[in-house]
Amino acid sequence: MMEIVMWICGIMLGLATLACVIRVAKGPSILDRVLALDVMLLIISVALCLEMVYNRHTDYLLFVIAACTLGFIGSVTVSRYVSDQRNA
Amino acid sequence: MEMFLDILVAVLLILGCLMSLIAGIGLLTFPDMLTRMHAATKPQVLGFLLIFAGLAIHLRSWAVVPLLLLAWGMQLLTAPVSAHMIGRSGYRTKHAAKDSLYADELKQIVDKVSSTPATGAIDVSSKQAEKTED
């Protein structure tokens, strides 16, 4: 049964990643891109959790926490230095 | 009991991944940045809660629960801050489409502060605003 669950979850995560990549490529402003990349990092954390479930180990827990912190620092830093180039 | 727990894990994992898919669809289809921000925060709190619950139940151990709670609590603390920063810089740089808003309560305050001549209280707040802009 776990096989089927993994397939369903993997397909859903793949579609979500594809949507994020399209938004990163299209996104009209840098903030849209930051948002989409943040979601992509969350999807990576979810995929790490799925791998831990499938192989029954806890090796990647710290990576999950690190990914959360990294996403936070990244989006805050980029949005702090965003400026309006059209009016500046 | 084992069977029940396995089914519970499967449901939790699928719902958690569904949150990510919803965020992806929202990112792709919503029209402007502020609505996309609304969609993007779905997997951050509820999705992670479901996935972490599924992981802890599947491993059948209490030892991972503190670490998972740490990761989830960190998400809970940092998600509003980063959303606030992105929304704030979007509002200031006109990346957020302001003409699509139904109500813009911040605009009244900004107009009020920028139009009134400098008196004590307003002066302090506008100075603070300048400081934060630096």
From TrEMBL, chain A:
Annotated membrane topology: Multi-pass membrane protein
Transmembrane segments: 6-25, 34-54, 60-82
This protein's record includes keyword Plastid: no
GO molecular function, one term: sodium:proton antiporter activity
Subcellular localization, as worded in the UniProt entry: Cell membrane
Family of this protein: Belongs to the CPA3 antiporters (TC 2.A.63) subunit F family.
Organism: Glutamicibacter mishrai
A GO-annotated cellular component: plasma membrane
Entry protein name: Cation:proton antiporter
Keywords carried by this UniProt record: Cell membrane, Membrane, Transmembrane, Transmembrane helix, Transport
Keyword hit for Electron transport: no
InterPro entries: MrpF/PhaF-like
Predominant location category: membrane
